[in-house]
Design brief:
single chain; alpha+beta; three-stranded antiparallel beta sheet; binds zinc ion; binds manganese (II) ion
Length: about 525
């Protein structure tokens, strides 16, 4: 029996608005996100709270306009449709992290529906409030209401995902989109982005839209929303890293495959399983509630939402360039290859830095005396120039940053472009340029000045290079004899000696040429 994976994700994303979803409390109390005062800290527990988010009787919720706008923007970025009409509903459940004993959420009229991210369809995107945070420690339980009432987007995909790796890819891209939109830092470790994954397997035969035959029913088959045959799914909770999502799904594939192979049928129960990161296993938590267990009904204290068409058009126009568009543009406009473009898109600040560096380089190309406008020169040489930029920024600069412990802000695009120009025009060689780069990061001086004061430029005096070559020939009679006897590999040794004596300032290629001429 050939089985295929049917995977869907349910993702919660905390919005980094200034205030909470339905009250004026600061939204700073849950793990902080970078645009706020200082990153990585919590407010003291139970300090950013008020009667509204504590669910006191008689209080009234007031929806956060920014949160609604950001959710609609995110929905648009995920290619969803925004309906003309939306509303909030109460979702009832009884749990210590929910003081009202219901969550204000959206049931049948979410903010966005029917989108897609890549090949994965988005079923819906809705807005709700987060619950408080429970901490269980040394046999005691604590509750911190700071997080209660934080704006939360819930994004549900269709079960279009085929592999654990594809699930990880999808989540990474989603995180990137949140960061480009500026609506959330979407850091999984800090709980800004939380993911539940559901998975079932099915015989490949069952994937086509087919009538439900008695034998399929016996196997436990169901009909999914889009008319496809599905089997009871397992929902995995407590996934707090991309790796955990991938590992838990891989574990479930093995577990469910075993059930299918042993019984010839699907695992019979629709259930919720937790993920134990240390054990590398999922475990049974509970049998899943059905939607009707929550007794949804419209939130009577919040007026229904009517979305004006012009408002949606305006939000659409305000969308920033998204990661996928940026990748396409960097390939098209500058000539980067797909791998480099993907890497560049991972960090919006780095992408801007590269773009400014290129704009500086264009200025230099303009004044370099070559024929044509800077853009024409770039267009003609773009494979070579983009390779030079990606090599110097993605490899050398990022390497120097981690070595010196400095940040991107410690070097300007002007200085980066100047350094690349020095290499491109053979004023210095690659080895010395790296030394100059580290010095730029440490001192913020410009590269040409460092090259001159530290004597790291290429030797332009041919006489001096020849003198160095002559000295090495005189000092290495044995190797010279070997080379003349036909052992060509010795040339590299001799070049190395010249480079050493000139402290790397000579141009290795021309040293090789001079040596060859002199020895033959
Ligand atoms: Zn409050
Ligand atoms: Mn939810």
């Amino acid at each position: 029996m050939k089985l295929e994976n049917v995977i869907g994700l349910e993702i919660h994303v905390q919005l980094k608005t200034a205030s909470k979803m339905f009250c004026a409390c600061s939204n700073d109390g849950s793990p902080r996100q970078s645009l706020r005062r200082s990153a990585g800290e919590n407010q003291a527990p139970n300090t950013t709270i008020c009667p509204v988010c504590l669910g006191h009787p008689g209080t009234l919720p007031t929806p956060n306009k920014q949160a609604i706008e950001w959710s609609a923007k995110t929905a648009l970025a995920l290619n969803c449709s925004i309906p003309h009409h939306s509303k909030f509903d109460r979702k009832h459940y009884f749990y210590p992290d929910l003081p009202k004993a219901y969550q204000i959420s959206q049931y049948d009229e979410p903010i966005g529906t029917k989108g897609h991210l890549g090949e994965v369809r988005i079923h819906r995107l809705h807005l709700e409030e987060d619950a408080a945070k429970l901490l269980h420690k040394n046999g005691e339980s604590f509750v911190d209401y700071n997080r209660g009432g934080t704006p939360l987007m819930e994004i549900v995909t269709e079960a279009d995902i085929k592999t654990p790796e594809q699930a990880g890819e999808f989540l990474r891209e989603l995180r990137l989109i949140m960061r480009y939109l500026g609506v959330s830092d979407a850091d999984m470790e800090k709980g800004h982005l939380r993911c539940d994954a559901n998975i079932s397997l099915r015989p490949v035969m069952a994937s086509r839209n087919r009538p439900l035959t008695p034998s399929l029913v016996k196997e436990g088959a169901l009909i999914g929303g889009s008319g496809e045959i599905l089997y009871p799914k397992t929902e995995i909770k407590n996934l707090n890293s991309f790796k955990a999502v991938e590992r838990a799904l891989s574990y479930e594939i093995i577990r469910q495959t075993k059930v299918w192979k042993e019984t010839g049928e699907a695992p019979e129960e629709q259930g919720t399983r937790g993920w134990d990161e240390n054990e590398g296993k999922t475990f049974v938590q509970r049998v899943k509630e059905e939607a009707n267990d929550y007794r949804y009904f419209p939130e009577p204290d919040i007026p229904e939402l009517d979305f004006d068409k012009n408002w949606v058009t305006k939000l659409k126009a305000e969308l920033p360039e998204l990661p996928n568009q940026l990748r396409g543009r960097f390939q098209e406009q500058y000539g980067f290859n797909a791998v480099d473009a993907k890497l560049i898109s991972q960090d919006r600040a780095l992408a801007s830095f590269i773009e400014e560096t290129i704009s500086e380089l264009l200025g230099w190309l303009e004044s370099s005396g070559q024929e044509g406008s800077a853009e024409e020169i770039w267009e003609k040489n773009k494979a070579k120039l983009s390779k030079l930029v990606s090599g110097w920024v993605l490899s050398k600069l990022l390497g120097a940053l981690s070595k010196t412990g400095k940040e991107l802000a410690d070097i300007t695009p002007e200085n980066m472009a100047e350094l690349i120009t020095l290499v491109y025009s053979n004023k210095t060689n690659a080895t010395n340029a790296v030394i100059i780069l580290e010095e730029v990061l440490n001192t913020k001086t410009n590269p040409t000045e460092i090259m001159n004061t530290k004597d790291l430029g290429q030797m332009s005096d041919d006489g001096a290079v020849e003198a160095a070559v002559d000295k090495v020939i005189a000092d290495s009679p044995k190797q010279v004899a070997e080379f003349r006897a036909g052992k060509e590999a010795v040339l590299q040794y001799l070049v190395g000696q010249v480079m050493k004596s000139t402290r790397g300032k000579a141009d290795a290629a021309s040293v090789g040429q001079i040596l060859k001429n002199k020895l033959s």
